[in-house]
Amino acid sequence: MLNPRTLQILQLLRHRPFVCAGIFLVAIIFLWKAGPHEYLPKSFTGDQFAFPTNTPTKVWDQRGEHVKAAFLHAYHGYEQNAAPHDELTPLSSGFSDEFNGWGVTTVDSLDTMLLMKLDGEYSRALKLVSEMHFLMPSSEFAPFFETVIRYLGGLLSGYAISKDQVLLARAEELADKLDPVFDKYGGMFPVFGVNTDSKEVVGPKIGALAEMASLQVEYLYLAKATGEKRYFDRANNVMSTLASADLHKTGGMMPIAWNLTSGVPFDSHLSVGARADSAHEYLLKQYLLTAQSNKKSLEMYIRATTHILTTMLYVSPTRHLLYVTDTSTATFTHAGRPTHKMEHLSCFLPGLLALGAHTLPLDDPAALGLDLHALGADMGWAARGYETLARQPSLREIHLWAAAGLADTCYLLYADQPTGLAPDEVIFKVQGDARYGLKDGKWMEGGGRRWIDEVEAWRVASTGSGTWKGRRLPPGVGEDAKPMVYTELERTRGTGRGRDYGGRKTDYPLRPETIESLYIMWRVTKETRWREMGWRIFEAIERETRTPIGYASLKTVEISPGIKTDSMPSYFLSETLKYLYLMFIDEEPFPLDAWVFNTEAHPLPIFSWDQAEKERFGIA
């Protein structure tokens, strides 16, 4: 005879289907409760693009004060726990010395303190700078690029705003200690780094574009401030070498890798992201800084942006997001294959395009001494891009459309995440990729829909029929795409709702590029939605990254609360918070037609060369 326990088990097995169904139902309820609600940020309520249009000035003033308080929180944490070292480690209450150990956060923050009128902090920082030395152990080397944009740029900007002579003196001293980087290969380009004590230099013969061609803004202003020809020569030699290089293979745009011994491109990999970004940025900014006196840098900027607009911008298949990617394996007959990778670093581009549209008469190239047809005449296959832009009713409009579409995408990369903060790199999916629920379609080599082709199709459809008929703006612009915040379950099992991209590097190192572009878009267009986007990003920074002594980078943006890492980069104080503050205050301390920001957000005043300087420096 069966015992009672066995009978009980058999009785349960008779009803197994009902038991399993019950367990499944309980599991579903549990996942529903723990899934979406657990991962949605507390402040995410409603449509993330439903921005108010009439936020009072008083509220914006208060928001500016919130950013100032954030800066004070971060800088005081650095002062009390890390100074005079380089950067605060905000989780361990320690420091790191990744940038020469001279106190980079102090120097990077000088102009932000002056902007925010933080007299006490600035006085203490000025004392540290006056006592700062630029020496290092024999085994270490100062990276030229980072030292120029952070230290030299910070010192020069602080001097430009305050006129404190000690800052200019330290800037000149630093530039002289960096000078050996130009000696190894005949002064064409700087090598990677130098020991500022022994003068020994280090670096490969193949250099990265951004590292060797992002000094013109700082060195030209230093030449103006000191009257010293040697600083002008350093910037001019780099620019002259770039201008004389044969760029036919890359459509007139500078590739990433260069041979430092010969001064010619080493490959045909084109990008506006890592290792390239600031070199393209400085083509325009060098021209603007010197009161629009260097026509060659302007010509190179127009060539670069023409290539970007006609070959490197794509529209995603379902949400129609406009994005910029890099291309490789270009030939004399083909633009190269897109990778469809988009970096957070590339989100400076919409701001740059908007700045160019704001400061240059793009609809009257003749006023700039330029002819698009002539620029493209000797560019081979790339000439088609110049012809395409020349056909457009307004070149300025094209630049602003691209700026707006890219800025929207850069913001959506924030709004799509549970943390409200953007991943460092994403990969956009192309049509026909069944893994992401996309249908087959007609594609170019490399996959994807080139934006300029869609603009052309839209123009045809606007007067006839076609996919884009009835649209007021071209594809990728004004899409009103809604944020798509994935739950953890959706993220781990696949895209779930067709977001059009996947995370490649999901960390958030407190980067400024999107905020920089939102600031410039606000100043250029006066559309308040750009400001509102900036405010939502700041709220996310406060919610997800704040620590008791500062702010911390995130390991991943895909889980909220964010997983913090022990790093607070100096650029968080020099760029991220500065651009947020400038976006929220009503006054414009650094008008875009009077000041130029270096790539580390250090503002320098626009100037003209006087006749004596032209003669001394050999300026034609």
TrEMBL record:
Lineage: superkingdom: Eukaryota
Residues that bind Ca(2+): 599
Protein name: alpha-1,2-Mannosidase
An annotated GO BP: ERAD pathway
GO CC field: endoplasmic reticulum; membrane
InterPro entries: 6hp_glycosidase-like_sf (IPR012341), Glyco_hydro_47 (IPR001382), Glycosyl_Hydrolase_47 (IPR050749), Seven-hairpin_glycosidases (IPR036026)
Keyword Metal-binding among UniProt keywords: yes
Enzyme class per UniProt: hydrolase
Keywords tagged on the record: Calcium, Disulfide bond, Glycosidase, Hydrolase, Membrane, Metal-binding, Transmembrane, Transmembrane helix
Cofactors demanded by this protein: Ca(2+)
Membrane spanning residue stretches: 12-32
Pfam family, one: Glyco_hydro_47
Keyword Transmembrane: yes
